[in-house]
Write a structure and sequence with these properties.
Two copies of one chain form a homodimer. Chain A is α/β, with parallel strands linked by helices and 228 residues long. The first copy, chain A, contains eleven helices and six strands. In chain A, helix 2 links the parallel strand 1 and strand 2. In chain A, helix 8 packs across helix 11, helix 9 packs across helix 10 and helix 10 crosses helix 11. Chains A and B meet through helix 2 and helix 11 of A and helix 2 and helix 11 of B. Chain A binds a DNA duplex (30 and 30 nucleotides) through helix 10.
Chain lengths: 228, 228
DNA sequence: ACGGATCTCCCTCGAAAGGGGGAGGCACGC
DNA sequence: GCGTGCCTCCCCCTTTCGAGGGAGATCCGT
């Protein structure tokens, strides 16, 4: 698998390429919707002796397209991006190469995001408050085929295991709830009766351990189940 | 005022200082709680010929302290930071030098944040999705004593003008509401009766143009009036 | 001294929301 | 084929909300 990746990489060398002479650089692709962050990350990664940024993507679609062309060793992927969410982009990439080394690099420490990111196939999940040194360590680890988790992230993930998982329907209802809709409006939106909505809400409240819809919204926001 | 700033800057040259020979560099201080972002920003700013990052702060307190020591020409300030919020840090700095050039650089485009940042005395408000070129332009503008607003930010600000402003009490109640508290609980928290809470809620609903507490929470979250 | 804004508290009343139960249908896995 | 989980809908009942009024107190700027 490694041999194959190297071979494909050889003819795909295009894009930003600051140090061509040096042998065996870790080829990094950056996907982040903030140009400032992309350029900043690229700058500090390129300062490292063993890594080189070969491409930058500003949204999920671009990330997948660039990954196909460049076949980077490591992809740094933000989650919240236009056009295609990071999680979806990861799925598409992993569908083509299950061994692809992808690092989620984001500000969100919601357990839901972490879980979704890793489930999609990311090898590592880093919060943007990491020290640069830790990022470099992570890049090298993923390049070597290893997984990498920050303690904080691992703790969040473990915590999620102990939490009740909501059904698809419950999440739908929770989202509509968070938009401020009434039970009746939720029912109309989902083509079910108000009774059914209440029924779902009941189990929802039990699972989230709350007693009011307002509490439910607050908790859902904290966990990243709904986005504003 | 400019002359004074230059004079003070002369003896304060310490910290990170990559290009000392070149004359009249714009001396930039970065305050952001993400080391990765700090280093990234510093890297690309230092690539510019006329600017140089002289210091990096990881929280609000550090930002104020470093600003005192370094007296930079321009300060890039994130809003959400540990220990001391960006807005507070801006206030403290402006209290010492009303002419201080401060640029808010953040991901939040909530009108409330924008308003608070500029009211505190920032000369510019940039969203992190700006192109690096625009950031450089902004730094130069602020260094020249000018204000700088992105069209998107200006639009948000204009929009806010047409919105009803909430009273202090109403904001307090809105925050407790967003935590999922009942009217009674809110009353107990604020040492007022439930009737009074309802009374405030009435005007709150009218101002926000909503009909339920859930809607109010959703809207407040969108506007940045409450943080999760 | 005045209006205006804000905060405080009170009333009623109908409409939602929440708590307690039960129950049928349906798909999925063991 | 039988349980299990999920979705659907129903009942009753109590509590809370939200809408409609009104009203006194304070502070502040003019």
């Amino acid at each position: 698998m490694l041999a194959r990746k190297q071979a494909e990489a050889a003819d795909a060398r295009r894009e930003t390429e600051p140090a061509p002479g040096t042998p065996r650089l870790i080829r990094v692709l950056i996907a982040d919707d903030h140009p400032l962050v992309r350029r900043g990350l690229a700058a500090i990664i390129n300062m490292e002796e063993d890594a080189s940024v070969v491409g930058e993507a500003g949204d999920g679609e671009e990330a997948v397209a660039l990954w196909r062309r460049l076949r980077p060793d490591v992809t740094l992927m933000d989650l919240r991006m236009p056009k295609l969410e990071g999680v979806q982009a990861i799925r598409q990439i992993r569908a083509e190469d299950p061994g692809a080394g992808i690092i989620v690099l984001t500000t969100f420490d919601h357990d839901e995001d972490i879980y979704a990111g890793l489930r999609a196939g990311a090898k590592a999940y880093l919060l943007k408050d990491v020290q640069p040194e830790e990022l470099f360590r992570c890049i090298r680890a993923v390049h070597a085929g290893e997984a990498y988790l920050q303690p904080r992230v691992a703790a969040k993930l473990a915590q999620r295991m102990h939490e009740e998982t909501l059904t698809e329907r419950e999440v739908q209802i929770l989202r509509l709830l968070a938009e401020g809709k009434s039970n009746r409006a939720i029912g109309q939106a989902l083509f079910i009766t108000e009774s059914t909505v209440k029924s779902h809400l009941k189990s929802l409240f039990v699972k989230l351990d709350v007693t009011s819809r307002a509490e439910a919204i607050a908790l859902a926001a904290k966990r990243g189940l709904v986005k504003f």
